[in-house]
Structure formats: C-alpha cells, structure tokens
C-alpha cells in the first residue's frame, strides 16, 4: 500500500480508490462552477438587454418641457371629464411635444464641402 | 450536468450571434457613420493633394509629377466615396421619414441610385487613368456631375423636411376632424354653446392651409433649382426658412386646438 508523508510529518494512505474519488469530486465541482458561470453570463446578458430596453422606454416616456402654461379650469362643463375629449387632448399634447422636437435643419446632412478644383499649372 | 452543458453553450453562442447580427443591421445611423468616416479620409487625401500639387508646382520634376498624379487619383477616389456614402445616408434618411408619398419616395430612390452608380463608374475608371491630364479631365467630369448631384441632394433634403411637416399636418388634421365630430355632438345635445369653438376650429384649419401653402412654395423653389444656379445653398436656405414658417403655422394650429379643448371643458 503506498504511504505518503505530508508536510506535518503525518503518514497518509493514498490508494487508487481515493484518487478516483477525489477526481470525481473535482469534476463535479468544475461542472458546478462552469454551470454557475454560464448562468451568470445569461443573467448579465438578459439584464443588460432589459436595462437597454428599459432605458429606451424611459427615454421615450420622458416628455420634453413645453412652454405652455396650463391654466386651471374654474368652472368645468359637463365635458370636462369626457373620455373622448380627454383622449383628443392627450394626443394634441403629444403633437405639441413632437412639434417642438422636430429637427427642421438636419444640419448633419448638409452637403459635404469638396474640393472640385483639380488643376495644375503645368500638366 | 455534462449533458446540458452543450445546450447551454449553443444557446449562449446563438444569443451572441443574434446580438451581433442586430448590431450589423444597415440603417441610417450606420450609413451616416460610414459617410463621416469617408469624409475624414477625404480631408486627409485633400491635404496630401494640396501638398503634392504645391511640390509639383515648385519642382516640376518627373518625381513630383508622379507624386501629384498619385495624390490626385487618391483624392478623386475619396471624393467619389464621400459622395456615394453621403447619397446612401440621404437615401436611408428618406426611407426612415414618414409623411412622404410612396411615389415621391420611389422617384427619389431611382435618382439617388443612378447617381451612386455614376460615381461608382467614375471611381472604377480612375485606375485606368494614364496621366495627370487624364485625372484632371476626370476631375472636370466629376465637377460637372456634382452640379446635378447637389440639386438632387437639396431636393431630397427638402422632401425629408416636407415629409416631417406633412406627417404632423396629418396628425393635427385628424384631431381637428375628431373635434369637429365632438362639437357636432355637443351642438345636437344643446347643453353648451358651440359657435365660438366652431369659429376657432376654422381658424385652426386655416393655419393648416397656410402651412400647406408654404410647403408648396418650398417645393417650387427646390424644383426650379438649375445647374447654372451659382449659389444653390442660398436657395436651399430660403426653402428651409419657408419650411420653418410652415412649421410655425402648424404650431399655431395645434395651440388653437388646445384652446378649443379648454373652452369645451369650461362651462358657458
């Protein structure tokens, strides 16, 4: 039977059976570790994707400040809470924001300034 | 565990590939980045051309001529590339803009595509140029063609801006129609005066008509642009100012709608 002396000077028996067991244990640990890493990668990807989506949604939801002064209605009519009218009001408010945000210059797409004067004094 | 590992890995690989494919989708932003990249390359090529031209002018040697030829060819190639990528970016911007009729969009697509093909051919012919004279001649051809390209680019930009206006005008008009129906229903019940809001609604419609007229004037201005017009940019700026006026009318029309709604919500 092989005898091994460890750094404390104690005798240790290491047979093939024990070796096989520890390799098996190591394999299980490695598999669990790999599984955990894969799960972590998945979580990171999905969280990143969700966060990106959420950010995009938030960007869409944040309305730009409008200069319109909202005045209180002192004596409301029967139509102050009319759902159809409120729906139109909501859309009109959205259009107001869209009108303010519209880029009417598209300055990034101005024509490139190119040198078209290709000439030489003495060709 | 080992059994599921390949499944996990293939799923992971699929997700990574899908995200990469999504990132590679060719849209306006990608086309615009391409254009900016090529524009930067062109600037560098132009600096080198100017330097080679000055050197040739001073030394008049065969070496300086050869260098000038190389740099001129490089400049022309870069110019072709800048124009091609610019027109592609314009095309994709046009595709992303709502409010332009399919017919108008297709007509402009055809013109832009044909223009890109011209520069593509011009670029491929550059490699066969045998002398500096050939390159100067090629540059002259490009200069002539660029007059037409400029008109097309300004008209496309005009169509993009007009498309945005058109879309917003349609949106406001839809709300006007809905309000008309609502006011009609209120008039029927007779529990609220509607004469004032009906008059205001006409005012809002009137603003939409003025906006449309301004847009029409813009289109006329851009359609009449000719090759011989020296300052095309000035004409385009005029057109852009008219688009802004048209936009102002839209804002007024929408503001009127808000006042109308407020009036309906208030008791007589």
Radius of gyration of chain A: 37 Å
Order of helices and strands of chain A: EEHH
Please describe the biggest sheet of chain A, giving its number of strands, its sense, and whether it closes into a barrel: 2 strands, antiparallel
Shape of chain A: flat
Strand element count of chain A: 2
- Taken as a percent bin, the fraction of beta residues of chain B is under 5%
Structural domain count of chain B: 2
**Helical amount of chain B:** over 70%
The oligomeric state is: heterodimer
Q: Kindly, what is the distance between the CA atoms of the first and last residues of chain A, rounded to a whole number of angstroms? A: 96 Å
Regions with little confidence, pLDDT below 50 for 5+ residues of chain A: 57-66
Nearest-integer average pLDDT of chain B: 93
Radius of gyration of chain B: 28 Å
Total helices of chain A: the number is 2
Largest interface: A-B, 49 and 75 residues
Distance between the termini of chain B: 76 Å
Overview of this protein structure:
- The complex is a heterodimer of chains A (123) and B (268).
- Chain A is mainly alpha-helical and 123 residues long.
- Chain A folds into two domains: 1-61; 77-103.
- Chain A contains two helices and two strands, in the order ββαα.
- Chain A has helices spanning 16-61, 83-101, and strands at 3-5, 11-13.
- In chain A, strands 1-2 form a two-stranded antiparallel sheet.
- In chain A, strand 1 (3-5) and strand 2 form a beta hairpin.
- The N and C termini of chain B lie far apart (76 Å).
- Chain B has two domains: 23-128; 148-268.
- The mean pLDDT of chain B is 93.
- By secondary structure, chain B is mainly alpha-helical.
- Chain B has helices at 5-23, 28-59, 62-96, 102-126, 132-189, 195-223, 232-265.
- Chain B contains seven helices and no strands.
- The chains are: A mainly alpha (123), B mainly alpha (268).
């Amino acid at each position: 039977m092989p005898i091994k002396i460890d750094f404390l000077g104690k005798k240790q028996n290491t047979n093939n059976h024990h070796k096989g067991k520890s390799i098996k244990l190591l394999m299980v640990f490695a598999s669990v570790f790999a599984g955990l890493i894969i799960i972590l990668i998945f979580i990171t990807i999905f969280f990143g994707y969700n966060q990106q989506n959420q950010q995009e949604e938030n960007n869409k939801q944040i309305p730009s400040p409008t200069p319109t002064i909202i005045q209180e209605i002192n004596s409301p009519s029967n139509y102050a809470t009319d759902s159809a009218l409120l729906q139109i009001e909501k859309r009109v408010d959205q259009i107001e924001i869209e009108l303010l945000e519209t880029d009417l210059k598209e300055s990034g797409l101005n024509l490139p300034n190119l040198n078209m004067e290709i000439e030489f004094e003495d060709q | 565990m080992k059994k599921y590992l390949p499944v996990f890995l293939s799923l992971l690989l699929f997700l990574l590939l899908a995200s990469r494919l999504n990132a590679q989708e060719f849209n306006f932003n990608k086309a615009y980045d391409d254009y900016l990249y090529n524009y930067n390359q062109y600037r560098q090529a132009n600096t080198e051309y100017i330097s080679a031209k000055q050197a040739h002018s001073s030394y008049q040697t065969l070496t300086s001529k050869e260098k000038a030829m190389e740099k001129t060819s490089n400049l022309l190639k870069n110019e072709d590339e800048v124009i091609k990528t610019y027109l592609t970016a314009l095309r994709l911007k046009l595709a992303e803009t709502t409010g332009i009729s399919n017919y108008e969009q297709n007509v402009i697509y055809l013109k832009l595509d044909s223009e890109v093909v011209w520069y593509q051919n011009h670029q491929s012919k550059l490699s066969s140029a045998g002398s500096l004279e050939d390159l100067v001649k090629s540059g002259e051809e490009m200069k002539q063609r660029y007059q037409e390209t400029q008109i097309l680019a300004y008209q496309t930009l005009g169509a993009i801006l007009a498309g945005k206006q058109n879309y917003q005008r349609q949106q406001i008009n839809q709300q006007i129609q809905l309000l008309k129906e609502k006011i009609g229903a209120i008039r029927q019940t007779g529990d609220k005066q509607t004469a004032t809001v009906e008059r205001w609604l006409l005012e809002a419609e009137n603003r939409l008509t003025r906006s449309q007229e301004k847009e029409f004037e813009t289109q006329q201005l851009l359609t009449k642009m000719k090759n011989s017009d020296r300052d095309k940019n000035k004409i385009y700026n005029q057109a852009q100012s008219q688009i802004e006026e048209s936009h102002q009318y839209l804002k007024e029309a929408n503001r009127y709608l808000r006042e109308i709604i407020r009036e309906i919500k208030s008791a007589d």
